[in-house]
Amino acid sequence: MDCGKKTSFNSRFWSMSAIKQLLFRQTLQRFVVQGVLMKFLYPDIYVKNIRAIPYGKMLERNIKLLVFDIDNTLVPYDMPEATEDLVIFLNGLKAQGFEICLLSNNNKKRVELFNKKFNFTAIYKARKPASVGIKKIINMFGVSPEEVAIIGDQIFTDIWCGNRNKMFTILTKPVEKRDSFGVYLKRGIERKVVDAFKKKAYPIHKKS
Ligand SMILES: [Mg+2]
After folding, report:
1. Ligand 1 centre from 151 Cα, in Å?
2. Are residues 24 and 59 in the same domain?
3. Which range of residues forms the domain containing residue 8?
4. How far is the CA of 15 from the centre of ligand 1 (A)?
5. How many angstroms separate the alpha carbon of residue 4 from the centre of ligand 1?
6. Is residue 64 assigned to a domain?
């Protein structure tokens, strides 16, 4: 009898403990997911294109340097050169007082050809989200990370790179739906992060 009581008490105890463990694990998972999203993957702002960025507010925030991705942020990935419109627009930003540079994971030929009409400081094969390219830029311009905004269409390269370096991060919609195959594979996961960001399922990034 005693033995039976002990067993049922134990089994109840263990089932309670299992529930507690499960709840604890779920809470932990939520915190981990939230932490990762906030720290690395959420942009500070999400805009439909580079023209929709509140540049006035950027100046108020003391942003001095705008770091643009090229492919699918400024032009479609298969458009070799900038349009005249884009040349006027980016030069207009320079006239407003911003420094501008290009940071691309694409190769030298692509970046140099695109940059011909601008002659901006440009880094190719930047290996975003790695910090090697962006750190080069910070040193060249002599700015602090808080004075830099990084602008791109990809969470797992541009935004991650900016967030890990404590910069202001701006996610743009891709200028075209067409993507290179490697990027296409990542878009599904990116959409989930963007949806979470839009629904404000988790608190918005601490920098915003
Ligand atoms: Mg891109």
Report:
1. 9
2. no
3. 1-39
4. 50
5. 66
6. yes
Ligand 1 centre distance from Cα of residue 55 (Å):
20
Query: Ligand 1 centroid vs 191 CA: distance in angstroms?
Result: 15
Q: What is the pTM of this model?
A: 0.78
Compute, in angstroms, the gap from residue 71 CA to the centroid of ligand 1: 4
The rounded Å distance from CA 94 to ligand 1 centre is 21
Spell out the SS3 assignment of the chain. Answer: CHHHHHHHHHHHHHHHHHHHHHHHHHHHHHHHHHHHHHHHHCCCEEECCHHHCCHHHHHHCCCCEEEECCECCCECCCCCCCCHHHHHHHHHHHHCCCEEEEECCCCHHHHHHHHCCCCCEEECCCCCCCCHHHHHHHHHHCCCHHHEEEEECCHHHHHHHHHHCCCEEEEECCCCCCCCHHHHHHHHHHHHHHHHHHHCCCCCCCCC
**Do 10 and 85 fall within a single domain?**
no
User: Does residue 21 lie in a domain region?
Assistant: yes
Ligand 1 centroid distance, CA of 9 (Å): 59
Report CA(121)–ligand 1 centroid distance (Å).
Answer: 17
- pLDDT tens, per residue, the chain with 208 residues: 455 555 566 676 667 788 777 787 777 776 666 666 667 888 999 999 999 999 999 999 999 999 999 999 999 988 999 999 999 999 999 999 999 999 999 999 999 999 999 999 999 999 999 999 999 999 999 999 999 999 999 999 999 999 999 999 999 999 987 666 667 777 777 888 788 777 764 444 445 4
18 and 94 part of one domain: no
For ligand 1, the distance from its centroid to the CA atom of residue 172, given in whole angstroms, is 9
Residues 84, 119, single domain; the answer is yes
